[in-house]
Design a protein that fits this description.
heterodimer, A: 1046 residues, alpha/beta, 6-stranded mixed beta sheet, 5-stranded mixed beta sheet, 45 helices, 13% strand, B: 86 residues, mainly beta, 6-stranded antiparallel beta barrel, 0% helix
Chain lengths: 1046, 86
C-alpha cells in the first residue's frame, strides 16, 4: 500500500452528450483534468461521439491528450466501455455506434428504422473490433450483471468471451468504487474474475461531472429523463446514492484503490497506447473528405471545373476585363491547391439539377464572394461588381473548409435532398444535427418539475421570465427574490445540521448550471455532410425523428472543426413566392433578368411600404428604411445588413444613418480604414470588412482572419473572441498603431460576435428583396396571392390582407363553388380566399370537395361529400356557403341533414323544418370568420368600433402617422407582433394595426411590468402617448395602456 | 438481537490518521473497533425542505463482537450510532 498519490488517467468519463445523464461540458471536463494534472482524459459518452470534436478542440488547447471512446449498450442492456486505440479503432467505434442505432450499412435497402434504443450484438462487436480497447464496464457491465445474480462462474465465462472477442491485451477488467454498500464485495469479486481469467485490471471513476458542484444538476437531469420529481426518482432508485462521480484527484484515487495500485498504473499504460487525430481535412484525411465527382471523358476534376468556368465567361462577362481573368485564375489556383474541385463540381451539379427541374434556387453566404461560384451559376451576384472578398470564402491558408449555402423553393427542397441521397448514397450523405440546449423556459419547466414545484407556480414564474437562456432566467429569478424577500435566499438555523436554500434560489443555481447543457439532438435545418470515405467511419449516424432521414452526431461547428465540408440545402419560402408569382404573371416575365434600377421601387422602399417583401419587411426594418433611404442594390444590401444585432451592438447604426443623411461628417477610426469602409461611410457593417481590417491593422493572414470570423460567428465564441482580442491588439501595437486605436477597432469588431452579416450574403439577399419589392409594386395581385400561399415572412394573414386592401387589391370571401385550396388570383384587383384558411379542414377532405364541385345547395353538398356535420358547421360559419343563403338558416338546415354514410338510401326530399331566424349581424359574421380563418375578408373589425372610439377622442393610426412629432395623442389598435430585442435594453416594441394602418408602439422597460398582462390575445388596446418620428418612420411612445372598452 | 435508531444515538468517535474509526463511546461505555467491514457515503435530499443529507456510514465490528453501523454527518462532523447487532 502507498500513500503517495499515483498518476491516473480517467478512462470512463461522461459529458452532457450522455444526454440527461452527464452534467458537464467537454471543455469543463478537460479543464478540470488539466487542473488535476491528468496527462490524458477519455470521453466515453453513452453510445455517442457527439461531443468528440469539442472534446478534441478543448484538449488540444490545454495540452491534455484526448482519448475517444464510448460506453456502448449491448443487446441485453449491459454497458461496455470502448476506447479507440488508433484511427482504425476510431472508425470501428463510429461504425459500432451507427450499427447500434440503425441498420445503415448492413442492409442493402438502407430502410429507415426510426429512433430505437441502441443495442449491439456480439456479432457486430466482433465485426468491428479492430483498434479498440475494451473495459468490462460499470455496475451495468456484463460482468457486474452476472455477479449481481451471484453467478461468479458466469462472470468468468463472460470475461472469457470478451477476451476471445477483443483479444488479450485489448481487454481490461474495469474496477470502480463509489463508496456504496456492496462496492467492496463487487471489487473483490471482479479481482477474482481477473485472477481466474488472467486479465489485467484497470481503475475508472465513471465520471459524470467535472466537479462536485455539478452533482445536483446530474440528479435533476436523471429525474428529467424520467419525467419525475427528484423525490419520485429517488424512491424509484434512479438517483445515485452519493455525489462521488466528479473527476477525482490522484490522492483520493490512491486511497480508494490502495490495495490495487496496478489498476491505477494501467490507466496510464492504456492512455499511452491511444492516439487518434480528428482532423479529417488534414493531409491524412483530406484526400477522402469529398466524393470523387464523375467527370466526362479523360478530364481531371480540376480540368472539368476549369472548362466549365471558362465556358461561362462570355455569358457572365460579355465585356471581358483583365481583372475577371486575373481573379478567376487566382481562385482556380486556390481551389486546386485546397483540392476542392470536387466540392465545387458537387455544388454545381446540385444547382444544375434544380435548374433543370425548374426548382428556384440561389447561393448565399460567403460563396457569393467567389467568381467561380458566379460562373458556375451557384451565385447570382457578381463578386467584382459588389467588391466581395473571396478570402471570406476560401484562402490558401484557411484552416476551415468553405461553406456554401443554397436556398431552394421550400415546396421542392425535398427533391434536391433525395437527389443527393440517390447520387451519393446514405453511406456518404447525411444531414447534420443540432445540439439543442436547454432554453430558459424549457429549463424552468423541467427543473421546476424535478424540484416538485406545483404546475401553477411554474406557470406563474414563466409569465415573469423573459429571458432566452437559463442563466439569464437565473438572473431574473434572483431579481425577483431580491425584490420579494431580500434576506430570504438562504435559510439557516444556528447550530442546525443542514442548511436549506430558498426553492427559487435553488432553481436559480440549477439554471446557471444547466445553461449550455445539451438536451437532445435534432436535425439541422438543411446542412448535409457528403464525404468520400464512408461517413460511418468519420462520425456515427443515427436515424432522425423524420421518416427516411439520418443525421450524423456532429453539429455544424464540429463538422467545420473536423475539416469536413458541409453543404447547406436550405428551403426559402420567398423562392416559392417568386415562383408562384411568376407563374401568375401574364404575359410571362423572367424575374431573374429584371433590371434593378426602377426608381419607383426604391421610392416604395424608402417610404417603408415593404410589408411582405424579403428581408426588409420587419418592424425594425420599416423604421430604418426612411432613414437610410436606399436608392440602389448596394444600399439595399446595407439595409439588410444594418438591422442586425451585430451592427446595433457595435454602435454602427446611428453613425451610418447620420452620415447618410449628412448630419455628421464621415469619420474613420484610423486613416488606414478609409479604403475598406468608404462605401459604408466609415461604419463597420460587414464580416468581410472585419477581415480586411484585421489583415490591414493587425497584419492577420487570411487564415488568421478566418479564425477571427469563426470566433465572431459561433455560438461558443466568447472565449475565442477574448483570445483574438489579445492577438489583434498585440499585433497592431507591433505595427505601430496606438493601443486606444487598436482597442476601439477591436471593440467594434467584437460587436459582430452577435451575428453580423457578410457582404456577399447581403448582396445575394438584396437581389431577392428587390424582386419581391418589384412584384409588390408592379404586380400586386400576383404578389399577394403568392405571399399568402407561401407563408413567407412573419406577418399574419389578416395583416397581409389589410395591406393588400391598402394597395387596391380586394380579398374576396370564401365560396364553395369558386374557392380552391389555396388563395387564387381572380384578376389584377382581386384575390379569392382559399379553403386552407379554415381551421380543421384538411387538404385531403378539400380535394374530395373540389372533385365534386359545383354544388347547387347545402343538401347537394352534403349528399355528395358526406363530410362530418361539425366540420360542415364550421365551413358554414366561415362563410364558405354564403352563396346558398344566410348562415344561421344554413346552420339550422345542416342540423337536419342525415348523419353518416347513407349512400344506399333513396334520394327522397325530406322537408326541412322551416324557422324564422334573425340574420347574422356583420360583426358576428366577422367574429366567426376571424375565429375560423384568422382573418375577415371585409377588413379589420376595429372599423366597427370607430364611432365609439371617436367619442373617446381616439385617432385612427393612419391619422396618427400624419401628426407632428411630440404631439400627445390617444390611439387604439390590435397587436399583431410583440418584440423585446436583446439589443433594446428592455424596450418592447408592439406592432399594432387598426382598419387604416400599422404603427409601432414603444413601451419603455420600466412600464413593461404594468402592461404585460394586457398583451395577450386579440384585445383592442387603447394607448395614450407621444408621437415620435424620424422622416416617415413614425411610432408612439406609450405612456398609458388599457383595454379600449375594459 | 438488533437495535435500530432512525435518528441515531449520539456517540463520540476516535479516528486514526486516515480518518478511520478506531473506537467510540456510547452511553458512557467505550467500544474498540476490531475491524471495519464496509464504508459508504450518502448525499441526498438536497432539494428537500429539511435540507441536504450528506453522511458517511461505517459498518464495523467491535472487539466485544458487536456489529454496528455508525454514521458521520459531514456538515457537522457529528457521529451517531444507527444500528447494533449482537
Amino acid at each position: 500500500m502507498t500513500n503517495i498519490p499515483l498518476p491516473f488517467v480517467e478512462l470512463h468519463c461522461h459529458s452532457f452528450y450522455s444526454l440527461l445523464d452527464g452534467a458537464s461540458a467537454p471543455e469543463a471536463l478537460i479543464a478540470e483534468a488539466a487542473r488535476l494534472g491528468m496527462p490524458a482524459l477519455a470521453l466515453t459518452d453513452h453510445d455517442s461521439l457527439a461531443g468528440a470534436m469539442r472534446f478534441h478542440s478543448a484538449a488540444r488547447k490545454l495540452r491534455v491528450r484526448p482519448i475517444f471512446g464510448a460506453e456502448v449498450t449491448l443487446h441485453d442492456g449491459a454497458h461496455l466501455t470502448l476506447l479507440a486505440e488508433n484511427q482504425q479503432g476510431y472508425a470501428s467505434l463510429c461504425r459500432l455506434i451507427t450499427r447500434s442505432r440503425c441498420d445503415l450499412g448492413t442492409r442493402a435497402d438502407t430502410a429507415w428504422s426510426g429512433k430505437t434504443t441502441p443495442a449491439l450484438t456480439f456479432d457486430q462487436l466482433a465485426a468491428h473490433r479492430e483498434g479498440l480497447i475494451a473495459l468490462t464496464g460499470c455496475n451495468q457491465g456484463p460482468l457486474a450483471h452476472a455477479l449481481r445474480a451471484q453467478d461468479a462462474a458466469g462472470a468468468v465465462a463472460r470475461a472469457g468471451t470478451l477476451a476471445d472477442l477483443f483479444g488479450r491485451g485489448q481487454l481490461y477488467i474495469e474496477i470502480q468504487h463509489h463508496q456504496r454498500p456492496g462496492d467492496d464485495a463487487r471489487q473483490h469479486a471482479l479481482l477474482e474474475v481477473a485472477a481466474q481469467t488472467r486479465l489485467p485490471i484497470v481503475a475508472t471513476g465513471n465520471t459524470h461531472y467535472a466537479v462536485r458542484a455539478h452533482a445536483r444538476l446530474r440528479d435533476c437531469l436523471l429525474a428529467i429523463d424520467r419525467n419525475e420529481s427528484l423525490d419520485e426518482a429517488r424512491r424509484a432508485g434512479a438517483l445515485p446514492l452519493n455525489h462521488t462521480y466528479a473527476l477525482a484527484d490522484a490522492a483520493a484515487l490512491t486511497r480508494r484503490f490502495a490495495c490495487i495500485p496496478h489498476a491505477l498504473a494501467n490507466t496510464l499504460a492504456i492512455a499511452e497506447r491511444c492516439f487518434v487525430d480528428l482532423d479529417f481535412g488534414g493531409v491524412a484525411g483530406g484526400a477522402q473528405r469529398m466524393p470523387i465527382f464523375p467527370v466526362p471523358g479523360e478530364q481531371s476534376e480540376f480540368g472539368f471545373l476549369y472548362n466549365l468556368c471558362h465556358a461561362a465567361l462570355p455569358t457572365r462577362y460579355p465585356q471581358l476585363e483583365p481583372r475577371v481573368l486575373t481573379q478567376l485564375a487566382h481562385e482556380l489556383q486556390v481551389i486546386q491547391q485546397a483540392r476542392l474541385s470536387s466540392f465545387f463540381l458537387l455544388v454545381w451539379d446540385v444547382v444544375r439539377f434544380a435548374r433543370e427541374r425548374r426548382i428556384r434556387c440561389s447561393g448565399r453566404g460567403s460563396a457569393a464572394g467567389s467568381i467561380v461560384a458566379y460562373l458556375l451559376d451557384i451565385s447570382q451576384v457578381d463578386p467584382l461588381e459588389h467588391d466581395l472578398l473571396f478570402e471570406r470564402f476560401l484562402s490558401p491558408d484557411k484552416a476551415t473548409m468553405p461553406d456554401i449555402d443554397l436556398d431552394f423553393d421550400w415546396r421542392r427542397r425535398e427533391e434536391v435532398i433525395q437527389y443527393l441521397y440517390e447520387r451519393y448514397g446514405h453511406e456518404r450523405c447525411a444531414m447534420v444535427c443540432n445540439h439543442v440546449q436547454f432554453q430558459a423556459r424549457s429549463a424552468v419547466r423541467d427543473l421546476g418539475r424535478a424540484l416538485n414545484f406545483p404546475d401553477a407556480v411554474v406557470e406563474r414564474l414563466l409569465k415573469r421570465i423573459d429571458a432566452h437562456s437559463p442563466a439569464q432566467a437565473a438572473e431574473e429569478i434572483d431579481a425577483l427574490l431580491a425584490a420579494d424577500a431580500p434576506s430570504a435566499t438562504t435559510i439557516s438555523t444556528p447550530g442546525a445540521a443542514r442548511t436549506t436554500t430558498h426553492p427559487l434560489a435553488l432553481l436559480a443555481e440549477l439554471l446557471r448550471h444547466i445553461d449550455g447543457v445539451v438536451r437532445h439532438l435534432s436535425i439541422h435545418v438543411g446542412g448535409m455532410l457528403i464525404t468520400g470515405r464512408p461517413l460511418d467511419e468519420l462520425v456515427p449516424i443515427e436515424p432522425a425523428t423524420m421518416p427516411g432521414r439520418y443525421v450524423v452526431q456532429w453539429d455544424k461547428d464540429s463538422i467545420e472543426d473536423a475539416g469536413l465540408v458541409k453543404l447547406d440545402v436550405l428551403s426559402l419560402r420567398t423562392h416559392g413566392l417568386i415562383t408562384e408569382a411568376q407563374e401568375l404573371i401574364d404575359p410571362p416575365l423572367d424575374l431573374d433578368r429584371l433590371p434593378v434600377d426602377d426608381p419607383a421601387i426604391y421610392d416604395m422602399i424608402c417610404s417603408a411600404d415593404t410589408l411582405g417583401t424579403f428581408q426588409i419587411e420587419s418592424r425594425a426594418q420599416m423604421q430604418m428604411l426612411p432613414r437610410t433611404l436606399p436608392r440602389n442594390l448596394k444600399d439595399l444590401a446595407v439595409e439588410i445588413a444594418i438591422v442586425r444585432p451585430g451592427p446595433i451592438q457595435g454602435g454602427a447604426v446611428h453613425p451610418y444613418v447620420n452620415r447618410r443623411l449628412g448630419r455628421e461628417p464621415v469619420h474613420y477610426d484610423h486613416p488606414d480604414l478609409e479604403p475598406i469602409l468608404r462605401d459604408t461611410l466609415g461604419v463597420l457593417l460587414y464580416q468581410e470588412d472585419c477581415l480586411r481590417i484585421a489583415m490591414t491593422i493587425a497584419g492577420f493572414s487570411g487564415g488568421e482572419a478566418d479564425q477571427l470570423r469563426r470566433a465572431m460567428s459561433r455560438s461558443r465564441s466568447q472565449e475565442a473572441m477574448a483570445e483574438m482580442h489579445d492577438l489583434f491588439v498585440h499585433r497592431a501595437l507591433a505595427r505601430g498603431y496606438a493601443l486606444e486605436t487598436a482597442s476601439t477597432i477591436f471593440a467594434k469588431i467584437a460587436g459582430f460576435a452577435q451575428f453580423g452579416f457578410c457582404r456577399s450574403h447581403a448582396a445575394s439577399f438584396a437581389r431577392i428583396s428587390y424582386v419581391t419589392c418589384w412584384l409588390k409594386k408592379r404586380r400586386p395581385a400576383a404578389f399577394y396571392t403568392a405571399l399568402l400561399n407561401s407563408g413567407a415572412g412573419f406577418y399574419p394573414h389578416d395583416v397581409i390582407a389589410a395591406d393588400m386592401r391598402r394597395h387596391g387589391v380586394d380579398l374576396l370571401p370564401l365560396d364553395i363553388n369558386r374557392s380552391c385550396w389555396g388563395y387564387t388570383l381572380v384578376d389584377a384587383q382581386r384575390v379569392r380566399m382559399g379553403a386552407s384558411t379554415i381551421a380543421g379542414l384538411g387538404e385531403a377532405a378539400w380535394a374530395h370537395v373540389e372533385s365534386a364541385q359545383p354544388f347547387a345547395n347545402l343538401r347537394d353538398f352534403h349528399a355528395r361529400t358526406r363530410l362530418p356535420k361539425m366540420l360542415v358547421a364550421d365551413m358554414i360559419r366561415a362563410g364558405l356557403f354564403d352563396s346558398f343563403g344566410e348562415r344561421r338558416a344554413l346552420l339550422w338546415e345542416s342540423g337536419e341533414l342525415p348523419v353518416g354514410d347513407r349512400s344506399a338510401e333513396l334520394p327522397l326530399q325530406i322537408p326541412i323544418t322551416s324557422v324564422a331566424l334573425p340574420a347574422l349581424a356583420a360583426t358576428e359574421a366577422e367574429a366567426w370568420e376571424h375565429e375560423l380563418t384568422g382573418l375577415a375578408p371585409g377588413g379589420s373589425y376595429v372599423r366597427h368600433f370607430r364611432a365609439a372610439l371617436q367619442k373617446l377622442g381616439v385617432h385612427s393610426l393612419a391619422d396618427a402617422r400624419a401628426l407632428p412629432a411630440g404631439r400627445r395623442i390617444r390611439v387604439a389598435g390590435i397587436m399583431y407582433v410583440r418584440q423585446r430585442p436583446q439589443t433594446a435594453k428592455g424596450v418592447t416594441f408592439l406592432g399594432m394595426q387598426d382598419e387604416t394602418a400599422l404603427m409601432d408602439w414603444v413601451v419603455k422597460a420600466d412600464q413593461w411590468k404594468s402592461f404585460r398582462h394586457l398583451l395577450r390575445g386579440d384585445r383592442l388596446l387603447l394607448a395614450e402617448g407621444v408621437v415620435q418620428s424620424t422622416g416617415s418612420a413614425v411610432s408612439l411612445l406609450v405612456q398609458t395602456l388599457r383595454d379600449a372598452f375594459g | 438481537m438488533s437495535r435500530i435508531w432512525s435518528a441515531g444515538e449520539p456517540i463520540d468517535v476516535h479516528t486514526d490518521d486516515a480518518d478511520a474509526p478506531i473506537a467510540f463511546t456510547w452511553n458512557g461505555r467505550a467500544h474498540r473497533v476490531d475491524r471495519i467491514d464496509e464504508e459508504w457515503r450518502v448525499d441526498a435530499d438536497w432539494w428537500s425542505e429539511a435540507g441536504e443529507v450528506s453522511r458517511r456510514h461505517v459498518r464495523l465490528i467491535t472487539h466485544s463482537g458487536y456489529l454496528c453501523v455508525i454514521c458521520q454527518d459531514l456538515h457537522t462532523q457529528a457521529w451517531t450510532l444507527l444500528r447494533i447487532h449482537d
